[in-house]
Structure formats: structure tokens, C-alpha cells
Specification:
Layout: E1 3-4, H1 13-19, H2 24-30, H3 32-45, E2 52-64, E3 67-70, E4 75-77, H4 79-85, E5 90-97, H5 101-112, H6 114-145, E6 149-150, H7 163-174, E7 182-183, E8 189-190, E9 194-202
Antiparallel strand pairs: 1-2, 2-3, 2-5, 3-4, 5-9, 6-9, 7-8
Helix pairs in contact: 1-3, 1-6, 3-6, 5-6
Bound molecules: iron/sulfur cluster.
Length: 233
Amino acid sequence: MPNMTGWELVLDEDAVLRGQGADPATIRERSPRLVQLATKALEVGRPLLRPRVFSSHHEVKAVRHDRITLADGGYLAGSLISQHLSPAQQVVILVCTIGTALDELLSEVMRQDMVYGLALDGVGSAATEALANEACRLLEIEAAKNGFQASIPLSPGMVGWTVDEGQPQIFNLIGDKAIGVTLSDHFVMSPRKSLSMVLGLGPDMGYQGKVCDFCTIRDICRYQDHYDPAAAA
Ligand code: SF4
């Protein structure tokens, strides 16, 4: 899947509420108004989603200490990278985005109704996560056909791979090919609702643990039971 469009994302009100950082069960019990806003945000926001995924495969040339050198000349480095990608024969970069249309509406709405704006933002977060989950799922299926296993998805900002380490490494590898997603001097992606990640592929990737184990907010996050470790970041 070098540059895919046409994604069907499965989203519901609970995903939107989680995208806002809220607990759906608590909100349903205490704030029916917020559930109504999530429903409205989903109806209005869904047609504005422009999900796209860029992927690029790179053969691994060498693994030395915390650095993986790729056959096409790039590299990935960091303790998280070596911990998970050392057994990999290939590395896959995935960049997922839902585009800018939702954000354009969001910036207008935020000036008039911040609570509704936060619900729209929740739609964007939920959609980006759902897209990343689906992209990883398809990649795993594709890899299995070639007798490969996939590592857990690794994103800049996880424990052992800071944003200022990881984002330049990813964007140095893919340049500006990645579906119009760009990286600022401060390592922020545009469109805002985008995710970048790296997965290793190999015949025996070993036990990788769960993505949540390497998340910087794992000690305070309430959603780890909900999270599908087989799929995403
Ligand atoms: S701890 Fe897990 S569910 Fe929570 S934000 Fe991190 S990766 Fe997501």
C-alpha cells in the first residue's frame, strides 16, 4: 500500500468521547448533552475526513548498538528502535492523515462554541487512530502472506524514541512524498491530525509487549483495556 485512499473508518460516539480524553461510560451517565454533541460532531465531521496512508518499505542493512542502517542509505536510531527492530529484515514507514478539511471547520467552530469544537476535535483524533489501526492491521496481513511477523508500531514520542529524535529520522527517509504531510522545524506534523510510525518485519520478531508498555502516559491513561495492541499507536 504505497499511498492509499478510500479507507472506511469505523467510528462511533464512544470513540469520539475517548478522542476528547473522556471516559464514555462516565459521560453517558453524567452528561447526555456531551453525547449528543459527539453524535452531531460525528455526523458533521465524518464527511470532512480525507483519510490517506503513505507507506514505504526499506531493507535493513545493518544493526549496530542503537542504530539500524537501511539499504537505501537512511537510518533509524534510538533505544526503542533497537529494542524492537533488531530482528527485522525490513522496516516499514507508515504516515497516516485525515487531511485538513475537519481542522478548517474546527478553527471556525472554536471561536463560537468551544465544547462543540472539542467534540469535532475528538472526531479527528478518533479517525486518525482508527486509520492507523487499520493500516497496521492490513500491513500485518500482507506481511504474514510473505511469512513475516510485524513488530508493534513505534511512533516518535514513545519511551526510548523522543519526538525530536524520531520525526526527523522518519521524514529524512520519506522526504516530502508522504501524502502532503510535512514536518515543521519544531517536529510538528501538518495536517495536525496525522500519525507517523515505523514497524519492523521479519520471520521471527519475538515477543514485543504492548504499545501501551512504551507509552509516556501509560501510568495515567485509562484506555489501555480498550486499546488493541495488535493494531496501532
Ligand atoms: S497508554 Fe496505551 S491507550 Fe493510553 S495513550 Fe498510551 S498507547 Fe494509547
